[in-house]
Specification:
six-stranded mixed sheet; alpha/beta
Length: 131
Amino acid sequence: MENYKVAFASNDGNQYNDEHFGDSDYYHIYEINEDSAIFIKTIENNTKNILEEVHADPNKAKGVSLMLKNEGVKILASSVFGPNIKRIKQQFVCIIFRNHTLLESIETIRANYLQINEEWNKGINRSHLIY
């Protein structure tokens, strides 16, 4: 099975932030499949200085998407996504987690790997997932 790189929106590496995915200071990247999860690295959100001209600015979505695509990320995980989710879900599987730590979320991704893989394969017609 394919490994997926997942970007978790978390400033401390343990809990999700209360802000939108694109407003996180840091993203913690893991490589996950059904059998394992390996921490790869933490990257700083270099799009925080993009001034949003409008709410849900497409330039911000583009900046975050490009930064994470350059890292090979295919799945985005957060407790909150903003209106830009409609743009970014065309390029990523977006997963909204309710009251989970990153460790709990990693286990949820591993347990639901086939469903997430199926969502990835839908291409631009993806929906977001909620766990």
